[in-house]
Amino acid sequence: MNHPIDRYLLFRIRRQYDPEAFAQLYDRYVTAMYRFILLKVPSKEDAEDITSEVFLKCWNYVQEHREIKEIRALLYTIARNAIADWYRSRAQHPDRSLAVTFYVDETSTDIEADFADGGKGKLLVEARAELSLVMGRLERLKEDYRDVLMLRLVDGLPFSLIAKILDKAPGAVRVLYHRAKKALDMLNQE
Amino acid sequence: MQHDIHRSLRMLRDRERGINPDPAWVSATRSRLLMQVRNTIATPEVAAKNRRFIAMAYPSLLRVVRAPALVVLSVIAVVFGGSLASVRAADQSLPGDALFMLKLVTEQTRIAFEKSKVGKVKLKVEFTKRRANELKTIVTTPVSNKEERVNKAADILKQDLHTLKEQLKDVKDDVTAKNDDAAVEAAKVVEKETVEVVKTLKETSKDELTSDAKMKMADAEAQAADVGIQAVEVLVTANAADGQKVTSEELAITISQHVQVVQTTVDSILQDSASSSLAMFASSTESTTSTLMNASTTDAMAKDAAVTLQQVQVLMGESNPTEAITKLKEASTKTFLAQTEVQKTAAASPVDGAAPGGNASSTPQVVNSALEPEEEDIATTTKSGG
Fold this sequence. Notes:
The complex is a heterodimer of chains A (190) and B (386).
Chain A: H1 4-16, H2 19-38, H3 44-63, H4 71-91, E1 103-104, E2 111-112, H5 118-135, H6 143-154, H7 159-166, H8 170-189
Antiparallel strand pairs in A: 1-2
Chain B: H1 3-17, H2 23-39, H3 44-57, H4 59-62, H5 68-80, H6 87-91, H7 100-113, H8 117-140, H9 146-178, H10 181-203, H11 211-241, H12 248-282, H13 286-317, H14 321-348, H15 364-380
Helix pairs in contact in B: 7-8, 8-9, 8-10, 9-10, 9-11, 10-11, 10-12, 11-12, 11-14, 12-13, 12-14, 13-14, 13-15
């Protein structure tokens, strides 16, 4: 699953400290990372900030010359941690609003979300709201189950990648996933 | 897995794929990152120094550990990520409005962030009250799609009341096990506010509603009354354990308030049936006879409940709240059941203004068959209206 291009870029970054290789890595993954993060933070600006932070952290991490199996898994892991850190620092400053501001057109009842492509942004917002209501029950599941469901269903990641992010065997992740679905079903039947 | 979740997730992913980062931001960030990165790799010696520096400055990077709070935050992030619109705009929204979902998400998030169980209950109560007020607004003011919205709002309200009932069970356990102050307080809040909910529902003039909608509202009212009585039960338990936490005076006032609610309901049942039987007296077809019979059943239930209510008063006079609340529960259940029955009958065969010998004659079978099972029900079980 470890893409040969990634392996090559990783090699160039580590051995040759090649910034161009890093830039190519960025090109390959910036959109995926942005979307992954966008889904979890209130605004586009927050997503942008965190995304650039993630790439910088990734560079620094690689410079440490630690054993890095797969750069893609590393990026996702750093992203998850960065999002957690971001929320933690928000929680310490309760005056900072976590609400997204919309520009409400005064003459109509439609909402134009402040995204790059207006109409699509609104659809995404609605889908997120509906999803969050439907997923509300996730709170009652075990941490492992929640992780797997989120990464698989919301982020659409392949099992092999999820396995690396969660540091488990791929087979174990599939089993976890099926158990998690069952548990969610049982909750929804209550 | 549930169809709902699959559908929502698919939709979300599809829409998400349509979103791209702002190209200007992408290239600006690319340049900036390249610059930052170049600055860190001047020479291999500097690189080595940098590595040591990074090891000190970013220790967290050396352990890519899954933060325990991460997943809770991811879930909350999804909830939050439902992009809260400016608070005021969402606040005024009603079921059926575009922003209403966001209002619900905001509320859910507040509950999720609330740590204490009791705090969660209080929030839930506040939001349930909101649902009742929204329902009232929808019924009494001109809105689009009234029928659909009333149904939606009533459903949401009933769901919330059901959740409250479950939460109350938890609270009751806390009270009996630990005689927890906070739990007692929660029960008080639930009791007080559900009475408000019942009042709000009663006050709402239902004349313009379809019979389906009226039935749903009657259901919701019964449910709210049920939750209220349950809360009083908790208070009775608390009072028995510790007369300071819930004083006998407080309890007496609370119980008499609930007695009042039930009495009002009894009165309206008897009043309604009295006025409709007068109307029916004028036109006697087969259908009206059977409706009259059914009315007499609900009347009997109401009168029975009234008698039970008097027993409640007596028991309170004897300072016996434990038995009093049992009787009160009985009376309340009977009464709201009767009220729901009245609505059901009205839905099955339109009583008021029905053309004599018109469509009414096709329904007596329905009404009649509804009779016998109900009579058994009253004797043996107490079915709650929700």
